[in-house]
Specification:
By secondary structure, this protein is α/β, with parallel strands linked by helices. The protein contains seven helices and seven strands, in the order βαβαβαβαβαβααβ. The protein has a seven-stranded parallel sheet, with helices on both faces. The longest helix has 29 residues.
């Protein structure tokens, strides 16, 4: 059945994995809401989509702020009449050894990666229950298994896995699924800023020996979003080239 005429809200979708996931869904007939905290990037992405004949609107919002999230969801419903798919993609990492992580860095990583997903899921819940249909897709990370220098990020992503499983149990009776994608190293602009030696060391731990691409994540999002995937629930799908087999 696909996702034709469904409405999808993708957080952090003005660039990278979120943008490609939103693009893939729009190309398959969904109306999409582009979210970011940067107005210019949102406007640019929406313009790019609409110039291609795709249905898209923008919503600038800090997902760690309840009022902002509720306003974004209301804008979505006012514009498109419903909300069917939520992709909790927005995230950030401020890592380092345990002794060097500040409380402020810990707080912002947990606020954006975990609290943001909670607030967005809570905000769409009533609309999805009313429609007896919904897809909540959380973008976690292979790092939820643990990673050196990633205590805040790994903790947030582990929490996101727990949230995914709990929502899968709570919401499935209402026709709503909750699933999680755990990417490994994905080729995004942020990764391009890594020193070559650091990237080489990271790739050495990947059985595939290469980076994943944003298309790999978009394909997984499309699978979970599909109307025909309604019996797939509370799962974690690793898209990491086998990296999940190794900790650290």
């Amino acid at each position: 059945m696909g996702i034709n005429n469904r409405v999808a809200l993708v957080t952090g979708s003005a660039s990278g994995m979120g943008k490609q996931a939103a693009l893939r869904m729009a190309e398959n007939g969904a109306a999409v809401v582009i979210n970011d905290i940067d107005q210019g990037r949102v406007d640019s992405t929406v313009a790019e989509f609409t110039q291609r004949g795709l249905r898209a609107i923008g919503a600038v919002a800090d997902i760690s702020n309840r009022e902002a999230v509720e306003g974004m969801v209301q804008k979505t419903v006012s514009e498109f009449g419903r909300i069917d798919i939520l992709v909790n993609n927005a995230g950030l990492d401020r890592g380092g050894p345990l002794r060097k992580i500040s409380e402020a860095d810990w707080d912002i990583v947990l606020d954006v990666n975990l609290k943001g997903a909670f607030l967005c899921s809570q905000a769409v819940h009533g609309h999805m229950v009313e429609n007896k249909h919904g897809r909540i897709i959380n973008i976690a990370s292979r790092a939820w298994l643990g990673g050196v220098g990633q205590s805040s990020y790994s903790s947030a992503k582990a929490g996101l896995v727990g949230l995914t499983r709990t929502l899968g149990l709570e919401l499935s009776k209402n026709g709503i699924t909750s699933n999680c994608i755990a990417p490994g190293l994905i080729h995004t602009p942020m990764l391009d800023t890594l020193p070559a030696e650091d990237l080489k060391a990271l790739l050495a731990m990947h059985p595939s020996g290469r980076l994943g691409e944003v298309d790999d994540i978009a394909d997984a999002v499309l699978f979970f979003a599909d109307d025909d995937s309604g019996f797939v629930n509370a799962q974690v799908l690793y898209v990491c080239g086998g990296r999940s087999l190794f900790a650290g």
